[in-house]
């Protein structure tokens, strides 16, 4: 079980903060969990909607980049987008840290009604919750 985990995506607006909230709820209290993006992004209100449905929140989270993290050592970096995965591998070349890639769809590409768009965000939430439960909270492997 890793003691510190960083979730990374493109802009720290949807996937990584959602994963951070889900992991904080699922993992033991002593586990340090954070999230960051490769680029600056804007907070996405649909994240609040789908997390609220399962009793979670990202609180006052504002998207931030790797450079803005308070701590820069993690046992595991979980990347959720190709751009983040490449950046994490580049940054950790000389470090003893595991970098794993969990391909996660970008729900902002969803079109249609509000319900259809929220459905895409729910699918991402449920995808991440399943991976966290099976690979981090369970006894399975992180990768």
Automatic annotation (TrEMBL):
Gene Ontology biological-process entries: response to arsenic-containing substance
Keywords: Arsenical resistance
Classification via Gene3D superfamilies: 3.40.50.2300
Domain Phosphotyrosine protein phosphatase I stretches: 3-139
InterPro entries: Ptyr_pPase (IPR023485), Ptyr_pPase_sf (IPR036196)
Statement: the UniProt record of this protein carries the keyword Glycoprotein: no
A Pfam family the protein falls into: LMWPc
Highest taxon listed in the record's lineage: Bacteria
Record-given protein name: Low molecular weight tyrosine phosphatase protein
Organism: Sinorhizobium fredii (strain NBRC 101917 / NGR234)
